[in-house]
Amino acid sequence: MTISADQIPAQTQDRQPALESEMTPPPQYDRDSYKGSGKLKGKVALITGGDSGIGRSVAVLYAKEGADVAIVYLDEHGDAEKTQQLVEAQGRRCLLIPGDISNDQFCGEAVQQTVDQLGQLDILVSNAAEQYTEGDMDEIDAARLGSIFGTNVFPMFYFVNAALPHLKEGSSIIITTSINAYKGNASLLSYSTTKGANLAFTRSLASRLMDRKIRVNGVAPGPIWTPFIPDAMPAESVEGFGKQVPMQRPGQPVEVATCFVFLASEDASYMTGQVLHPNGGVVVGG
What we know:
Elements lengths: L43 E5 L4 H12 L3 E6 L3 H12 L5 E5 L5 H15 L4 E4 L15 H11 L1 H10 L8 E5 L3 H4 L5 H20 L6 E5 L8 H5 L2 H4 L14 H12 L10 E2 L10
Parallel strand pairs: 1-2, 1-4, 2-3, 4-5, 5-6, 6-7
Family: Belongs to the short-chain dehydrogenases/reductases (SDR) family.
Pfam families: adh_short_C2
Protein name: SDR family oxidoreductase
């Protein structure tokens, strides 16, 4: 069951990252009609930003498909513990790894902890990000750029470098980019720029790892109802969120997570360097 834009009331949160547990209505991270079929049986996935939003839904659907998961998050402990419960309810293991992904040493430790405790690593999902609404250019100063690139861009390199010694032929790396990497967004200038970097990284890394038969693909969501929205937008802008796309409603995390299942599975064995676009009907180039 989807949620219409009219069901999204004005709201904001006074912390970043925002909490999924405080959103109204709650995002849909699963649906009863989704039945796992063992697509990821015996696999281990590490998901950054796995505590909530798209990351939580990916963790739940991966568990339904037979994978154990490690989720990396900053400090949203309540949301992370909820995700852990959801994964374990599917009979799979879920390792919680809190910390700051802008620190390359932490990223390496997170990968090693995943391998040590879950036995291997087959799927790396680089999903964690931050964003800011910017009215004026002078809001985008060195501190802002350092923060957003330190979260949205540099950790891709940190995690991939740490993961590659453990990834085998047939492994998969999936990067979350954005519709804004293709069409731009005047009010999310710094964020959109980092998402363009995510896109370029996906395509370049796919070519680099072709000989190792490790696939690298991306997902470019449109307006999705996640904690990103109340932590980055003014309360009045959140009301009616999602009306701007042809479907005239926000997407739900579960409507995006299915792309991550496909790209991680053998169903996508002939795809690398590609991007899927769950965006409510917006046609973008590239």
